[in-house]
Amino acid sequence: MILAVVCVLGALSACKAYYPPSGAQFASTAKSSFSNEFTQLDEKRNGKTLWRDGMVSGNGEQGVITSGAPYSDTLIYQNIHFILPNANPRVTPDTADELESVRQAIIKKGSYTDSQPYLDVYGYHPGAQLRIRQEEREYSGFMRYTNYETAEVGVRYTDDKGQWDRRTFTSWADGVTITQITSSDKEKPVTAEFTFDNISSFAKFGDGSEVDIRYKKYADKDGYMTFVAHYPSYEGSELKEGGYATVCYIISEGADVKTTENDLPDEKQYAGSSNPGLKVKKADTVYVISVSGRTTEMGAYDAFADQEEFALADELKAQVKAVADKYTDEEGYFDYEGALKAHTDIFTPQFNAVEFSLGADITVANEDLIRKYLPWEDLTKTEIDKTLAERAYYSGRYAALCCSGTSTSRLGGMWTGEFNPDWGSKFTMDANVNLQTAAMNTGNISSSPVGYVYFILRQAPDWEENAMATHGYTKALQAPVHTDGDNASIVESCYEYPFRYWNAGTSWMLYPMYETLMCYGDMHIPLSDEFDLDELKSVLSPSSAPLTDAQINAIKSRGYLDLRTEILYPLLVNAANYWQQLLTPEYYTRADGSIAYTQGKTSLEEGESYCIIPSYSPENTPANYNSPSAANCAIDISACLSNMYMVIDIAKSIDENADTSVWEGIIRDLPPYLFDDTGA
Prior knowledge:
This protein is α+β, with helices and mostly antiparallel strands.
């Protein structure tokens, strides 16, 4: 794939000097946080975790991390779909013929061979890093802040030219990130240089396939800066000829823009013939409008060095230019407040839907609040600090909302300033996604359920292929432990981590949608480019036959899916089909809790129950059996019960006369939970 970042610094000829009010009028509230310290990122090489000290904004798809450094600020642009290809396969290995031997080994408490290697799905990665460099001076009164109600992050400081302010937010209305740099309160103009940092400066660069990225930078007299790169190319990858892009349109009011030339990057990844940037001198105000995107059709990897035209970059330029035009007034000035209002009309009501007040002290900076509780290992500090608790709640709510609407939260939210982030910053579905979305319904964040549904529908076809490949089951669903957002195949499995035998995932991942119905009632989910409706004909059909073309076209015509009847119900039915095929009288649990196998057995006898085999509780191994693959794990009993209760309830809500006897029978015949002497 190709990486492209485009920035436009368009000079607007102003008929009068314009000095907007300094400072964005930020004042600390309970729904904000601030710091009097910052961490500046080195343009040569970033520390492993220094970017984590930055401030974030996001709209679920687009996002940004800004360091807030006064004279060398960085904006690391994000897109929730940015994933870095590797050489691993994208299809679940067909191991269904091994299922019976694994079952027999567990019954006999023997060993079995699992030669499947653990192969990672793709990992998350950042977009381009824009650096805003200004002349360094002695300064005072530094503060950087996050306004949770507006999703603005800002910087304020004072030097001999006055008080300076920068604000940034990612818009829910226009799908871009907007930065405002104002003249000082002494009406001193803005002079700044804009460049893209080299990808080798990112934290943890060099540990993975990013070493095979190829990229270029462009700048021209019209004010456009473009960072474009090609992903590593692997056979079988959907990103074999793909790329990603971040586009910034920088509007310079009251001054022209000039191109600058910098030393060529000394790294094999750079394929450009020059390393340009742009400079604004004595502008009244500067705005940066940014957007990130990707494509699977950038072109051949080997042709990239000679390629000069990039459709993705052109599309993103048009997008940011359209936003600039939308908010430019009759006198030629960009209306930041208008763009902010369009965004906050969507964002702020969602954030303010829940109030939480403990009487926090809003005058305490984050670092001072945290230092009160260092070291964390000191367990004698048992009293809950009201300010810390309240600020932690609002920061968590803010992060959850910023990750909503398009998908759901990755392991690290939607932000990364490094290549090869921990655990790939994948969507981790055996615990983390479940915890990260636990409050999306009861927390009354209205866009979260929609994004979560998109997240599920995007991967559901892979779940059906997983069930067939690992177990040979038809019209059944099996969720993986990890997805990178594009692919949900089960390639991450081995003897120590037998994720191909993780049964609980689908039921677990469907429960939040059931909870959505309980919290919000019936809901229409708008169609979206986030999923391919034509690929969902089978999984969205509760019967053995897939949806017809006519049914799909009818859905497209009306523009939405009904959550209860057209999404959750068929998914629950197909998830129940998995359990129905897994549970067979041949493998059963005796009344004393022991498990057994009788070939050809067709029914359970009195006192017997099904045996869930193989059964796997992630990262747990039985004390009396040296294999992670076991039988009757509590997680599976719970998940199966949950699945059956949900599907029965939904079926009866659709048709009170629905036949639910098969699902009721599964509930009746599931094995009981077992407890040890400690009650565990």
